[in-house]
Amino acid sequence: MARDNAWCAPAEDDGAESDQQQQQPLILERVEKEAGKDCRSAALHRLRKHCSCTSEKAKSKVLDFFPIVRWLPSYQLRDWILGDAMSGLIVGILLVPQSIAYSLLASQDPIYGLYTSFFSAIIYAVLGTSRHISVGIFGVLCLLVGQVVDRELALAGYLTESGIGSGISSNDSAVLLAGQGNGSVVLGCDRSCYAITVGATVTFTAGVYQVLMGLFQVGFVSVYLSDSLLSGFATGASLTILTSQVKYLLGLKLPRPQGWFTLCKTWYSLLVNLGSTNICDLVTSLVCLLVLIPTKELNDRFKAKLKAPIPFELFVVIIATLASHFGHFDTAYGSSVAGVIPTGFLAPQLPLWSLIPNVAVDAFSIAIVGFAITVSLSEMFAKKHGYAVDANQEMYAIGFCNILPSFFRCFTTSSTGCQTQVSGLVSALVLLLVLLVIAPLFYSLQKCVLAVIIVVNLRGALRKFADVPRMWRVNRVDASIWLVTMATSSLVNTELGLLVGVLASAFCVLGRTQRVRVCELGRAAAREHYEDLTSYRGLRTHPGVAVFRYEAPIYYANQSLFKKSLYDRVGLDPVKEKTRRLKFKKKTSEQEEEVADVTYRKPEKDEATAAATVTLDEKSRRSVRSVVIDCSAILFLDTAGVNALKEVRKDYEDLGVTVVLAQCHTSVRDALERGGYCPDAGEDHGGERRLVFFTIADAVRYVQNLSRPTGDTLWC
User: Fold this and answer.
1) Distance of alpha carbon 122 from alpha carbon 135, whole angstroms
2) Residue 436's closest CA among 343, 345, 341?
3) pLDDT for the residue 42
4) Fewer Cβ within 10 Å of end Cβ, the chain: N or C?
5) Per-residue CA distances from 66 to 71, 74, 124, 177 (Å)
6) CA distance readout (Å), 175 to 170, 185, 190, 212
7) Please, where are the H alpha helices in 128-256?
8) Which residues 6+ apart lie within 8 Å of 149 measured at CB?
């Protein structure tokens, strides 16, 4: 057992303090830890845990990997099936127009959006741990995928958008060999075919990243993506999405700009080509907006009373499709329509392996964003309904929701809303019905109607702008992170916005440790409690003793700032004082008769003692013989932090000022011990030297009793 070298005595009132009674320290014994033994036992324990195989452990692994095996046997069929079926039916109906619409955003044909929603709903129901979210097409991820697809299409030589919405019919006559710019070879593949090949390859790569992160148990990365960061990123991406859909609202056929500053480039292109607006598409867009915005607001207002939202989007799609079909909008007015949407499923297809190096970086950002969105929604609903989600299992689930569907020409998915796993399966059945029977009926659906659906669904993200003043009042740091991330994501580059947001968050955390200042503490009148003198009234200070607190860890990046701030608050910089004394000694040795600038308060003392007493600051004339540093807010120390405390103690002791620490955490005590901060017992004061105390009161009493016999005083 090891003894903790700390003073811990019961509290005294002022009268007892005036009696100057010597307090006896309470020696606490800490459990000795054998480092080698602990490491060996921990390593053996982990090996047994991860390498052993029993029937119970194998069963537990299977149940953890397939959560449906756990919850399905306990599913209350009679009580829950009706509600889940109705919810799944409504959600499935809503997914149909949304899946078709978001296909445009991902630069894909409508059929591939239906494929994506169908496969992801089934896979997440089997592998997901959240009981209240569904997985499907998400706008931000579609935007990221669409940017990669357009870039690779341009590199491959496809320079127009004529293939989007033309279907995947074998009658397409415009066939261009891919590989003219990026080295890929897909013989007989037209623009639509190559677009989904790129999208599926990106999706497969992102899924592999997510599964690997789940395998290596790195689900904790989601904690580094704060709510303000994700909200700013989503809002910035929403501005980019909104801008990308304006050309469909106006009926303009414009290529999507590549590279940075796409928002500015897109608006410039829109303004230049504004005279080519298709009046039919513009009128249709305005009518659909006037219908959908108020009806969606009604859904939001009465969502607590409605068992499921009313599918106004589907009603608009059906009416718009009928109007376009019988009005011949595509031939008579040149309006862009969805085109041929085939039924059934295509044969599985492998990703384009040669394309993976080109999209690997893009896929990583897509993987991180998709996982962060899913985990944040999962944890929100889990906390609301009283259960837990496994972040690593969610990584597996989302990863396989991307890997497996990628073989069936699908693109990246994430969480999209709230429903149970059974209702997710019902939604998949609705989508299956559409894929097998109903899909061709949407041939005449105008693309501007799909763009309206996308724009209306951005309302939630765009409303965040109204919350900026409130965010600024609550926390300016979080509001700044939101603004920086939003501006970078929208104005510069979407993927770069995520990186800038992460860096801004990290620098804000580091900046907070740089801006911390040492504060002086005073004691409450009624009890032994210490707080900041500038924050509370009625606090008292101790004669000759100054108590300070530093509210941040001390490490290599802020150790110099800690020392500077402490010296400023004490009113005595020991380094400058030593320099001043050396100059004074040199000057007095040359001119002994010159008037010294050292003011002696006790002329009767000997010369050596008097040299330790100096006048430092005329603005605050109080004597300081001891400094107590409250370490309760110091979470950790590194080597530089320990050395900084050692330097402070040594420099002040050279001037006759005692420095002690109080209220150190156990980890801080261990760091001080390993760093050699505490001298050996018996080094000073007959073996009674103490440098670390459990409470501030103990430290104050100790230094008061320690300093009284000598009477040395520093004025500062």
Assistant:
1) 9
2) 343
3) 65
4) N
5) 10, 15, 10, 42
6) 10, 13, 5, 37
7) 139-156, 191-215, 227-250
8) 106, 107, 108, 195, 198, 199, 202
**Which of 364, 415, 436, 412 has the alpha carbon at shortest distance from 103?**
412
Handedness of CA 7, 12, 14, 15 (dihedral sign): negative
* Matching residue, tokens 């004394």: 581
Distant-in-sequence, close-in-space partners of 204: CB < 8 Å, separation ≥ 6: 351, 402, 403, 406, 407
Q: For position 172, what pLDDT does the model report?
A: 39
Cα–Cα distance for residue pair 255/269, rounded to 1 Å: 9
Please state, in angstroms and rounded to a whole number, the distance separating the CA atoms of residues 160 and 256. 9
**Residue 313 buriedness (CB in 10 A; 0-12 / 13-18 / 19+):** buried
Q: Where is 298: in which H helix or E strand? A: helix 279-301
Query: What is the Cα–Cα distance from 237 to 414, expressed in whole angstroms?
Result: 15
Beta bridge partners of 136: 414
Contact 363, 426 (CB under 8 A): no
* Sequence letter at residue 15: G
Residues with Cβ < 8 Å from 277, sequence gap 6 or more? 250, 251, 252
Tokens at residue 470, please? 């409130």
Question: CA nearest 520: which of 532, 529, 536, 528?
Answer: 532
d(CA 399, CA 128): 11
What is the per-residue pLDDT across 104-132, written as a single tens digit (0 to 9) for each? 888 888 889 889 888 888 888 787 766 66
pLDDT at 387: 66
Contact criterion met (CB below 8 Å) for 600 and 613? yes
Which tens digits make up the pLDDT trace of 148-189?
A: 998 888 888 775 454 444 444 433 333 343 344 444 545 567
Place of tokens 């920086």: 484
User: How far is residue 615's CA from residue 716's CA, in Å, rounded to a whole number?
Assistant: 7
Instruction: Output the pLDDT for position 290.
Output: 93
Q: What is the pLDDT of residues 649-688, one digit of tens each?
A: 888 888 888 899 988 888 888 888 888 887 654 444 433 4
Distances (CA, A) of 17 to 88, 359, 701: 74, 73, 8
Q: Which two tokens stand for residue 245?
A: 């859909």
On the 0-12 / 13-18 / 19+ scale of CB atoms within 10 A, 302 is: exposed
Structure-derived torsion over alpha carbons of residues 382, 388, 390, 396, reported in degrees to the nearest 10: -50
Residue 28 token pair: 């606490």
Q: Which amino acid is at 325?
A: H
- Tokens representing 536 are 């509370």
Q: Can you tell me the distance from the alpha carbon of 75 to that of 68, in angstroms, rounded to the nearest whole number?
A: 10
- Token representation of residue 271: 């303004």
Among 130, 102, 114, smallest CA distance to 396 is for 130
Please give the Cα distance from 3 to 32 (Å, whole number). 9
Residues of the chain below pLDDT 50 = 1-22, 25-26, 36, 160, 162-183, 185, 595-621, 681-688, 710-716
The candidate with the shortest Cα–Cα distance to 695, out of 13, 7, 2, 16, is 7
Sheet harboring 519-523: ordered strands across? Answer: 6-7, 692-693, 658-662, 624-630, 544-549, 519-523, 530-532
Query: Environment class of residue 188 by beta-carbon count within 10 Å: exposed (0-12), middle (13-18) or buried (19+)?
Result: exposed
**76: burial class by Cβ within 10 Å (0-12, 13-18, 19+)?**
exposed
Q: Please give the Cα distance from 467 to 230 (Å, whole number).
A: 15
**H/E element, 417:** strand 414-417
DSSP helix/strand/coil, 660: strand
Q: What ranges make up the beta strands (E) of 81-224? A: 134-136
Measuring CA to CA, how many Å separate 164 from each of 185, 435, 542? 21, 18, 79
Residue type, 22: Q
